[in-house]
């Protein structure tokens, strides 16, 4: 028998968070938690994980994470995916590297992609966030300028350390448009600290920029010691997205339509 309290709790949880245990689940009996198994097949009573049964909390969570309100929360403003990314000339290795991180658990965790404005860097970051979330990997996409503002705001709120810890330990982090709207020395140091901490433990970290890495060093946008981590082939990839700006093509189409009226 399923008790009414369990049903009510699950309904409330679903309303609040967007996902909840299945109150009728035979595996967790609506608690949403189970003990994981050890490699030898025995139950590990010292730990709990989200119930992985079909239709229960973990599968509901993955579905919820791909919905609009959840994605906005992760920094994804447009519903861009790998499916609507055209394999344009010059973006081949870029697309391959993003896909590798999105789909392959053994991909090198660090990726630095640079190239001209409008050639799909943000699009591919968003597609990667969506795919990682589908795999149950927590992630966040930040435009660097927004993150700098967020860091600044955290000072009077006294939440800098909390924010920094989250940024250093989040399983996947995408820092988009590095080198624009840069903050003060303090913020630069914070950004560096985040990258170094993540590199040390091999967490998925993607940085995009309009500037070439050498230019970034030259212009003091990123210290050489950080750039060099992204050049280390054993753990990182540094890729030039050579595709041109995708947007003029879109505009050209619109103009043509307008002319024919
Ligand atoms: N290869 C592509 N296929 C489909 N859409 C693309 C492609 N490259 C860019 N776009 C679209 O062009 C616009 C600009 O791309 P964006 O990813 O914002 O560029 P970037 O971040 O490199 O400046 C976006 O609307 C994006 O979806
Ligand atoms: Mg962009
Ligand atoms: Zn369950």
List the keywords:
single chain; alpha/beta; Rossmann fold; 2 domains; two-stranded antiparallel sheet; 11 helices; globular; disordered C terminus; binds adenosine-5'-diphosphate; binds zinc ion
Distance between the termini: 67 Å
Number of strands: 7
Structural class, from secondary structure content? alpha/beta
- Number of contiguous helices: 11
* Integer count of domains: 2
Q: Give the DSSP E fraction (strand runs of 2 or more residues).
A: 5-15%
The gyration radius over C-alpha positions equals 21 Å
Sketch the topology as an H/E string, one letter per element.
HEEHHHEHEHHEHEHHEH
Overall geometric form: globular
Largest sheet: 5 strands, parallel
The CATH H-level superfamily of the largest domain is P-loop containing nucleotide triphosphate hydrolases
Bound molecules: adenosine-5'-diphosphate, magnesium ion, zinc ion
What is the mean predicted local confidence, pLDDT? 92
Helix percentage range: 40-55%
How would you describe the oligomerization state of the chains in this entry?
A: single chain
Q: Which blocks of ≥5 consecutive residues have pLDDT under 50?
A: 257-261
Give the spatial strand order of the biggest sheet. Answer: 4-5-6-3-7
- What is the CATH T-level topology of the largest domain? Rossmann fold
Reading off the top of the CATH hierarchy, the class of the largest domain is best stated as: Alpha Beta
CATH architecture of the largest domain: 3-Layer(aba) Sandwich
